[in-house]
Amino acid sequence: MSRTKRIALGLGAAALALGAGLGVAGIASATSSPSPSPSSTAPADNSADGQGMHGGRHGHGGAERGERAKELAAKLGVDEAKVADALKTFREANRPATPPAEGQKPDRAAMEKALAASLAKSLGIDESKVTTALEELRTAEQADHAAALKPRLDQAVKDGTLTQAEADAVTKAAEKGVIGRGR
User: Fold this and answer.
1) From CA 113, how far away is CA 130, in angstroms rounded?
2) Which residues of the chain have pLDDT under 70?
């Protein structure tokens, strides 16, 4: 196997592990922060303090969590502040006491099921409706992530770093949520 292919496979595996761990953690990490007063001179950031649902956003900034709570609230037809509070409650209740051991990652399916159940109970909504909304948001984020990767993959193919088949495989993995932030 060529050096380039080994590097590409290693990077793909690392992205897969990172993406799976960040996926559920990102959904569960949305919470609310105080809104600026109308008399404030700073622009309102409409944030809660979590990760965003749409491509290209990284980190744990407040605006991103606020966007996640806002999008989920819109899908569920409930107040954004209630969703942000419910997400914060879930995150606090499910925060691990110690970091996971090297090589371990949380059970994504179990975390998503627990999140849906917690939100449904907190918001007084049917769990299937919450599950569907979370899945729709995750699918949209996966599509955004795949679209954001395309220019970089195209450049890697042009530069000879990846073959077109390798770039296509990475794109497919991102679209399916195998790599990236595929919550």
Assistant:
1) 10
2) 1-6, 8-64, 181-183
Q: Which two tokens stand for residue 6?
A: 């080994």
| DSSP letter for each residue of the chain | --HHHHHHHHHHHHHHHHHHHHHHHHHHT----PPPPTT-SSPP----SS--SSTT--S--HHHHHHHHHHHHHHHTS-HHHHHHHHHHHHHHT--SSPPPTT----HHHHHHHHHHHHHHHHT--HHHHHHHHHHHHHHHHHHHHHHHHHHHHHHHHHTSS-HHHHHHHHHHHHTTSSSS--
* Per-residue model confidence (pLDDT) at position 14: 53
Q: How many other CB atoms sit within 10 Å of the CB of residue 182?
A: 24
Cα–Cα distance, 86 to 99 (Å, whole number)? 23
